[in-house]
Amino acid sequence: MIGFLVRFSFRVTACSVLLGSALATVSAPAARAQDNQLSISWEVRNRFRLFREERDFRLHVESGLGRSVLASEQALELQSDGRGWARNMVNRLCIDLQGRVSEPCSRDNVKESYLTPIDHPIVVRLTGPVPVGATCAWSFDDGDGPQSSTFDCAEPVNLRVRYGRTTVATVDVASGSDANQRVTTPIAVRDLLIAGLGDSIASGEGNPDRPIALSDEGFCFRSYLGGAQYYRPSRAGYKGGRACEAPDTLTNWQRQSALWLNSACHRSLYSYQTRTALALAVQYPHIAVTYLPLACTGATIADGLLGSQQARECLPTKTANTCSGTVNGQIAELRTALAAAKRRQPDRALDLLLLSIGANDIYFSGLVANVIVDTPTERTLFSQGGSMASVDDARSALARDLPADFAKLRDALKPLVGGDLSGALRDAGQATGGNAVAAGRQGELAIEELAQLLGWLTFVIPSALLLIAALPRRIRKVRQINVAAQVLRADSEEARRLLAMRAAFALPFGTLLSYTRDPFGDLQAGNYDALLRAVYEDCGLRAPTGKPMAGAGFEPA
User: Fold this and answer.
1) Second label for 185, Cα 20 to 30 Å away, from 58, 239, 405, 486?
2) Backbone angle region of 145, left / alpha / beta, with phi > 0 → left and psi within -120 to 50 → alpha
3) Under a CB-based contact definition with an 8 Å cutoff, are residues 166 and 323 in contact?
4) What's the whole-number mean pLDDT along residues 364-393?
């Protein structure tokens, strides 16, 4: 539904234009050197600026080599044993779990302004037929005088370049009796400011950064219609009372909730908006991406974008739940952030806006409830509480309210994104109304049949409860066996690289230091032996000595 409502006009007319203009200056190909000529290559380090630590960004760069986004996610899934790459990364961001931007943000031990960076870290290399043992005299000039240094030409050069200025990089290459060669290139970083707005489709609902962990002990809850007590699996770490009458049940239960980038909005690093911004940073080495996620599950145009909305849940802590129960309107939050940025950098502007909105405006969840809920008493309660809607209700909202709401949204966005938005969103509600209503009517019966089928399947729950006691131990053993099997099959360079990535990004850094002084340098240079030794011993295998490590010949440690 939302794809029709928004992509039809706004995403096509606004996002595409903004994205094209934002990348036009950074994707134009530079003059390519001939194969027999030296050249200077450079890239921005840790260029997805939401990440505090470069290792988190390098994880995505390494997993994305030669892969699609889907294939990259699948590789990361294998590396994390299905637990997800965001489970720890969510605590290492420049935006905290309450949605507040860290100003300044300490990124790789350097304090930076998140919204208005004044410089960016880059790495520069001499590429091409570099003579063995050659010496490079580097010079970097941004207009305030050159900075010079001399290194072996095989060594990369790390420095920070000022944002908004072009830095001219020059290198004089000296190699024995050969004549010196000079190579020059301009360096200019483009920092893209990207914001994400919308509802649950945009926020990443249903895909938390760290999911709930279940335990094998039952937990009591009552049906709100009365009757017998029911039991379900408990959450790992829950220490409260388990009887239905336990007074501390709800508070303690909520403390073991899933972890989100933002709990109040069920905002996740796995959302399509975050993955879009991250993919831009991975793909384009000469840009940096400053990303501001604001989407909130349950949002409508009136309540969520233009005005405040109810929080989905509060951020669980050891003492209490910390939230006011409401979330500020996304447009107001974006306006405040842009105003703060412009006070420090008057020319700072929004480069790209990602938006998905409209499904909740035509009662999406109410339509789903209308299909799934069939008990007469429950249907009455849902209807009286406003939690159920019909196709006619949705069609009426689509024709009566949505066009005017989109017009208000267009007027609110125009001063933030600039340009001519006179036609954006104008017909978003009407243009797809017939298709949407027809799809709703045709899909209602299909979903109802699916719901009935799911009802027949519920008999598996009692059997599943019997298995829960044995599953955790079995899962831990199977994971260890799977890792060991992967090690034993590591007979190709690609398998060795994946195992080395697993060690570098999954094992504690203190553990890695007992094998190598520079884990990430070894990974980038292709020196995998020390990292492989670490992962071998982690899964209970003894690595052979005196030869390159392969998959055969390992013994239990």
Assistant:
1) 58
2) left
3) no
4) 85
